[in-house]
Amino acid sequence: MAKAEKTAVTPTRQEDYAEWYQQVIRAADLADNSPVRGCMVIKPWGYAFWENIQQGLDRMFKATGHTNAYFPLFIPKSFMEKEAAHVEGFAKECAVVTHHRLEEGPDGGLIPAGELEEPLIVRPTSETIIGAVYAKWVQSYRDLPILINQWANVVRWELRTRLFLRTSEFLWQEGHTVHETQAEAEKETSLILKVYQEFAEEYLAMPVLTGAKSPGQRFPGAVETQCIEAMMQDRKALQAGTSHFLGQNFSRAAGIIYQSREGKEEYGWTTSWGASTRLIGGAIMTHADDDGMVMPPRLTPLHVVILPIGRTDSDRENALAYAERLNLALAKLTTVWGGPLQVKIDRRDLNAGEKGWEWVKKGVPIRVEVGPRDIEKDSVFVARRDRGARDKFSLGREDFISGVPALLKEIQDGLFARALAHRQANTREFDSYPDFQAFFTPQNSEKPEIHGGFALAHWCGSPECESKVTDELGVTIRCLPFDRAESGQGKCLVCGRPSPGRVPFAKAY
Are 20 and 9 spatial neighbours (Cβ–Cβ below 8 Å)? Predict the structure, then answer.
């Protein structure tokens, strides 16, 4: 019997996917748990990844005419109460501030004092307070549109948390816009969804489905919620970004009124949209393997790491000098996406294997070893992170330098193709409810194996049929695809009534 190959991360994906995910984060040094339950510390490597995500999205927002601003962390309770569906949707997740100072108690500890006249909600999302500000800013149709985004943190008091995927506090961007007409607001909603789709697929190398949420899964207070949905390696879905058409609901609650071109008072048409550090979780679960993180080259904090190797002091000095010359040559290059090539020489006095494995676990796309033999042949020893950790090849120095940008693009494209193939291999059509049930039922109920995927099935539109599937199997409709009609009419998987087309069902994060 062949001996199982040792991996840098244990357990493996197949052995325990949930624990594997946590161990990848630890091995890649992306984040740590906080002393505050449910919160996380994003470590430098993880934060550098988030900064690249942030910068990429920010450029795309600004290219579509949006600007950044900042709004308060605290929201008066009365603001939340103005929009009934909104407060109902967030009430159980809110953190509430009721006092404004601490005083020494009788036992020497600190106790809250100075009760506030009105409790303040720690921002779970900003529609209500931004709406109040917009009501002051908007007087005439000439003041529209307002196209503003903010980068911020929010708090949603989660009971069951998981780093990057669901934490009590997380980082995100939230866009809030006001428009003169319904058509303009609907166009904005679709525009931002296309931005999210492009970013997910072209930057994160994460293929996504697009569509609208079912009425039962819309954002609280929205008329329509559009989303991008990705399949993770355990075949569960991840909602990776949402864009909401809010109609006039929040304008009516906040009093966003403008004088129209005809001189009449009208309520503004608003949208909101957001993506968060959950994208990091999505990248991990889409690309990482049993040796750690695999960074998509377009967003990685580091493209190439150079590892000088030598057994003697003289060998190490020569290798470092060779690495320095290589670094200078690479530093003059740009990636195929226009940004500078990020290169680092690992000069630490550590065992070569130890250093190499650290960068494997962090997911750097290209590792380059240079030692006495490489210097003698004026070559480098190259490893690609999208391949096995021990899959290395020798390449002439000049050929390597000139080929790095193309190599990075090849890795980026390969990651997307691999993720897309995974989704296609685990997407099936179903017309029988028993077969559908079997698809989402693990063979080992005590320790469920990886199972399921995206099930394309007909749905009549009934909330009862949707709830039945969720209650029985923990499966939800991920979206109503924009091209749903192309799948053809059929009969609802649950009740047999007419359906205009198939929708993807999946277990989800």
Answer: yes
pLDDT tens digits for range 4-47: 678 999 999 999 999 999 999 999 999 999 999 899 999 999 99
Q: Which tokens sit at 58? A: 């920010």
DSSP 217: G
Residues of the chain with pLDDT under 50: 1
Strand pairing report for 146-155 and 392-396: unpaired
Tokens of residue 490, six digits:
């059929």
Bridge pairing between strands 343-345 and 304-308: parallel
The H or E element containing residue 211 is strand 209-212
Rounded CA gap, 257 and 404, in Å? 55
Model pLDDT for residues 164-193, shown as the tens digit of each residue: 999 999 999 999 999 999 999 999 999 999
Average pLDDT, the chain: 96
Q: Rounded to whole angstroms, how far apart are CA atoms 39 and 51?
A: 19
The domain limits of the chain are 17-287, 304-410, 427-506
Q: What is the DSSP letter of 203?
A: I
The whole-angstrom separation of Cα 159 and Cα 166 is 9
Query: Peptide bond before 11: cis, by omega within 30 degrees of 0?
Result: yes
Say what the alpha-carbon torsion angle 26, 28, 29, 31 is, to the nearest 10 degrees. -60
The pTM (predicted TM-score) of the whole model is: 0.96
DSSP bridge partners of 33: 40
Angle at 100 between CA 98 and CA 103, to 5 degrees: 110
Specify the CATH number for 17-287; select among 3.40.30.10, 3.30.930.10, 3.30.70.360, 2.40.50.140. Answer: 3.30.930.10
CATH code of 427-506, in short, is 3.30.110.30
3-state secondary structure 146-161: EEEEEEEEEECCCCCC
3-state DSSP call for residue 260?
Answer: coil
The H or E element containing residue 370 is: strand 366-370
Superfamily for the 304-410 domain: Anticodon-binding domain (3.40.50.800)
| Rounded distance between C-alpha atoms, residue 210 and residue 189, angstroms | 12
Write down the pLDDT at residue 159: 83
Going from the C-alpha of 473 to that of each of 430, 431, 452, 460, 478, the distances in angstroms are 15, 16, 11, 18, 14
pLDDT at 341: 98
pLDDT in the model for residue 199? 98
Angstrom distance (rounded) from CA 110 to CA 356: 49
Q: How far apart are CA 90 and CA 88, in angstroms?
A: 6
Classify residue 9 by its DSSP letter.
S
